[in-house]
Amino acid sequence: MKVLGIETSCDETAVGIVEDGRFLLSSTVASSMDLHAKYGGVVPEIAARSHIESMIPVITDALSSAKCSWQDIDAITVTNGAGLSGSLLVGVMTASTLAICFNKPLYSVNHVVGHVYASFLTETNLTDYVMPVLSPKFPLLAIIVSGGHSQLAIFYNHIDYILLGQTRDDAIGEAFDKVAKILGLPYPGGPNIAKLAMQGNFETYRIPEAKLDSLYDFSFSGPKTAVLRLAQAEVGEDFNFPSFKLSERLSEPQKANIAASFQYCAIKTIVSKAFKAYKNYQPKSVVIAGGVAANLELRRQLLKLIPESDLIFPDIKLCTDNGAMIATRGYYQIQSKQLPIDPYLIDVSPNLKM
Ligand code: KG4
Ligand code: ZN
Questions:
Q1: Is residue 147 lining ligand 1, measured as CB closer than 6 Å?
Q2: Spatial distance between the Cα atoms of 3 and 21, rounded to a whole number of angstroms
Q3: Domain for residue 344, yes or no?
Q4: Residues 60 and 178 in one domain
Q5: Structural domain of residue 25, as residue ranges?
Q6: 188 alpha carbon to ligand 1 midpoint, in Å?
Q7: Whose CB has fewer CB within 10 Å in the chain, the N or C terminal residue?
Q8: Near ion ligand 2, which residues have CB within 5 Å?
Q9: Residues 110, 163: Cα–Cα separation, whole Å
Q10: Whole-prediction pTM value?
Q11: Which atom of ligand 1 is closest in space to residue 297's alpha carbon?
């Protein structure tokens, strides 16, 4: 069964085609990131307009890379939430129109759940992909860490899952992006913090972790503010000093040490909670999803606590937003006997929960 997945929840216009829920036939992603970079974050209106421009070329490219025609596609799946409403609308309207025109069954997919399913992709003929050797097994612990999400969830099967914990404020990627701004690094900040951290010493500063009463929830707003106060103190100013002027006053070693100390603290927060869940739920697999999965410190800290044979890291191109994860999740919804959605009734759910 070949499933085509459409993802437009944020700034990526993405279409993927997957066979039998494990074989990646194609994954085409067009990002409008360059248009947002000068604003320091995604501008919803610009993202939505860019989806409209990119949608048809991305679909055409995904079909031709997969060497498929519409006749070969058995079902269409689309992200209906959570995400930016204007962006979601473009994907959902496109998917429903295609479902009507080509008479294909249509399924909606929760974006965050979709991220987990990137790890079910274990085979491909495409070059440039490093696929996991093992398929995930249930019960499965999912660590979802990106610019928009920080969640821990346990999946007992494709239908029954529970959200164990999530962020109370900023997502971890968002905190990386905001700290990067303080240090004068360009958006998206995560990869730039990670690079700079390599030249610093994580023991230079102690960034406090948020103490929460919940076992598995996170908070990244406190550590982010701690970085701001620390940077202000380092340049000899008080809390009134504007954050945008800090980077010109900090030395390169100070910036590198702040990057390393913040990264260590933020990643430790995720890893220590994930490890608690690992001990308490004894999953057979632990899958890592979302853009922050690219972070090497995350891999290093996880590997210190969890056996490598239990950890599944999808190829980094499949960790960030893509259509293939939506196609894969949709495939397992179909296998679980979920009924297709009426293309005339499908709607977006910007605040959809897991
Ligand atoms: O999954 P994604 O592409 O989009 C969302 O759904 O949010 O994740 C993007 C996020 C950004 O916040 C980016 O700064 C972060 O992932 N990121 C990283 C790294 N690479 C990307 N954060 C930390 N270390 C990295 N190496
Ligand atoms: Zn995402």
A1: yes
A2: 8
A3: no
A4: no
A5: 2-132+315-335
A6: 7
A7: N
A8: 146, 321
A9: 13
A10: 0.93
A11: 24
Looking up tokens 């036939």, which residue turns up? Answer: 25
Residue 174 within any structural domain of the chain: yes
Give, using CA atoms, the residue closest to atom 7 of ligand 1: 147
Q: How far apart are the first and last CA of the chain?
A: 26
**Do 248 and 292 share a structural domain?**
yes
Q: What is the CATH number of the domain that holds 326?
A: 3.30.420.40
Can you tell me which atom of ligand 1 is nearest the CA of 180?
A: 14
| Whether residues 174 and 231 fall in one domain | yes
Which are the contacts of 245, defined by CB distance < 8 A and separation ≥ 6? none
Q: Which amino acid, one-letter code, is at 22?
A: R
Same domain, 186 and 254: yes
Helix, strand, or coil here: 220? coil
Name which residue sits closest to atom 10 of ligand 1, judged by CA: 147
Number of domains in the chain: 2
Neighbours of 274 (CB within 10 A): 25
351 domain residue, yes or no: no
320 and 308 belong to one structural domain: no
Tokens linked to 225 = 């503010």
